[in-house]
């Protein structure tokens, strides 16, 4: 299993709606609106890096109100 954090910037006032919509997606473990340079932090998982990438590109980035995403895969060292 591959895990990643997805840091999301949204349009003003859209963080709660974006987090709520993303939280129901398959592969999303948590989606929370936060303060700071990013508005929503998502923990996601997939069987492979390709599956995780597909989640980000085809589903998460398609959510209305998102202006930018940064995906941070979790590494085990």
UniProtKB/TrEMBL annotation:
<feature type="domain" description="Transcription regulator AsnC/Lrp ligand binding">
    <location>
        <begin position="6"/>
        <end position="76"/>
    </location>
</feature>
<dbReference type="Pfam" id="PF01037">
    <property type="entry name" value="AsnC_trans_reg"/>
</dbReference>
<dbReference type="InterPro" id="IPR019887">
    <property type="entry name" value="Tscrpt_reg_AsnC/Lrp_C"/>
</dbReference>
<dbReference type="InterPro" id="IPR011008">
    <property type="entry name" value="Dimeric_a/b-barrel"/>
</dbReference>
<protein>
    <submittedName>
        <fullName>AsnC family transcriptional regulator</fullName>
    </submittedName>
</protein>
